[in-house]
Amino acid sequence: MAEPSDSPVAAAADPVTAKALEALQAALPDAVVDSVLTGQHPWIQVRAQDLRATCRLLRDDPALRYDCCHLISAVDFPAPTEGEPHIDVVYHLVSYVVRPEASYAKRAEKNDPFLAIKVSLPREKPEVPTVLDIWIGADWHERETWDLMGVRFTGRAELPRILLPEDWPGHPLRKDWEFPASYHGVPIIPPEGL
Amino acid sequence: MPDEHGMSMIPGESLLDPELQQSVILTKVQWVKDWGRRHALWPMAFGLACCAMEMMATAATKYDLDRFGAGVFRASPRQSDLMIVAGTLSHKMAPRLRRLWEQMPDPKYVIAMGACVIGGGPYSKFGYHVVQGVDLVVPVDVYLPGCPPRPEALIDAIRKLQFRIQERSGETLPDMPQGLPQDPTDEDGEETSAA
């Protein structure tokens, strides 16, 4: 992957994303923790308790209108170089109103980036309020994030697994997840040197 | 007359009077049963992933699996005697596969089609969700490597199975594998494990 400085997009901050950051800082002065506005995938990190207010603002602001939660993903940091072990949840947002280009390639062509909203959660008890009532499409993404990374989304009626069976041990995309010896009588040979 | 695979079409042929050979055929009931069985394999469509595309291509016009009597794909295990496990078998699917296999009437046969089914394939080492070989769940008659195998290879596997059925005519069924998976979603409380 190329360094951000090599990309022609990287030189200047994306105007819509900059507008989003401005609006956030005006409405929720303490919410924004960190941000990078350049590149094809600019991101803004907010505090977990301000996530819902942030998402509402980004969806409802007439100049921004982030009307689609494209993806929710999570990153596990069991031993970061600085700070406590944490799990980052990343919300990838798209506006089909302000920027109607649907495909990633066309967005890249026109320098229309996705916006990522990050929250950092303690690794022992990763809990974040749900955004299901803000974007209905977040439902399956939240279930997948719970299924594979063990992030608990609070405030929604139920949070079942989406891919793995209900009695599966643990959340397998955690870096410290261990292979069970067998599952329902079928033996599992764990990989060596993991 | 022995056929091209060295199998005598008529057991006890050489004992017959040459004139009698013109008018009388001697054979065993078991042999005839297996002859019919091997030329009328009814596969169960068990497509799990991309190998199923090749399985469909094999059954379609160009390769025409019906030429070998094995083109009648059934959607029900109760009507089929050959299970072509085509594609990646996950741990979530394994109890269902076992259960469908148990619902097939004897004698039944299994072809393990593709690298994933034989040993986990590309998911064998780090794929937490893939069973490392379908032979951990059901006994396998023919292993068919490839990723995915071409239709010619599947035809070859079915031919091999047909010869095997005739060669093993009258033998008892192979041993069951150890460690039978239990179906966790068995809601009606039926006993799902094999006796």
CATH architecture of chain A: 2-Layer Sandwich
Helix/strand structural class of chain B? alpha/beta
Q: How many DSSP E strands of chain B? A: 4
- Strand sequence of the main sheet of chain B, in spatial order? 1-2-3-4
How does the major sheet of chain A shape up?
5 strands, mixed
The total count of helices of chain B amounts to: 6
What do we call the CATH topology of chain A? Beta Polymerase, domain 2
Alpha-carbon Rg of chain A, integer: 18 Å
Biggest sheet, spatial arrangement of strands of chain A: 1-2-5-4-3
Question: Roughly what percent helix of chain B?
Answer: 25-40%
Indicate the multimeric state.
heterodimer
Q: From the alpha carbons, calculate the radius of gyration of chain B and give it in angstroms.
A: 19 Å
- The end-to-end span of chain A amounts to 25 Å
SSE-based structural type of chain A: alpha/beta
